[in-house]
């Protein structure tokens, strides 16, 4: 089990869609997941201006430089993200692996084998993986539940 000194970095959002709708890559259960994790770890959120702070996170670090992001990932115990910039950055920089939450995008195409790629079911994947995201809608059912994510994080950090 995690101790009080564990640090989990979360990157909860993918870039906003041009049509103003919720990005289908965004995990809908962050509030519950952070609630679970906060009893075991310090949860630090990273992101950009305009993104909403997830309730229960210790801090929200916005617009980090590449160097600051590298340092944060190197000192955290694990990170968790949706399909956004962070998994690609960590892979390219050869930083520690993390946990990526997948819904409609295919981890076999866009993921990396060093990460724990959590996909609920391939039945939710988009039929046209390279189409623009504005043609899709968000579907909370496409994602694994927060209890499963928390169990995975705790197992990874032990």
Feature tags:
single chain; 158 residues; alpha/beta; globular
Describe it.
The structure is a single chain. Strand 1 (7-11), helix 1 (30-38) and strand 2 (42-47) form a beta-alpha-beta unit. This protein has helices at 30-38, 66-75, 85-92, 107-110, 146-157, and strands at 7-11, 42-47, 59-62, 78-82, 99-102, 116-119. The chain contains 5 helices and 6 strands; from the N terminus they run βαββαβαβαβα. It is 27% helix and 18% strand. The chain is of the alpha/beta class. It has one domain (7-157): 3-Layer(aba) Sandwich (Rossmann fold). The model has no long low-confidence stretch (mean pLDDT 94). Helix 1 runs parallel beside helix 5. A 6-stranded parallel beta sheet has the order 3-2-1-4-5-6, sandwiched between helices.
Topology of this structure?
Layout: E1 7-11, H1 30-38, E2 42-47, E3 59-62, H2 66-75, E4 78-82, H3 85-92, E5 99-102, H4 107-110, E6 116-119, H5 146-157
Parallel strand pairs: 1-2, 1-4, 2-3, 4-5, 5-6
Helix pairs in contact: 1-5
Helix content: 25-40%
CATH architecture, please? 3-Layer(aba) Sandwich
| Oligomeric organization of the protein chains | single chain
- How many domains make up the coordinates? 1
Briefly characterize the structure.
The chain has helices at 30-38, 66-75, 85-92, 107-110, 146-157; strands spanning 7-11, 42-47, 59-62, 78-82, 99-102, 116-119.
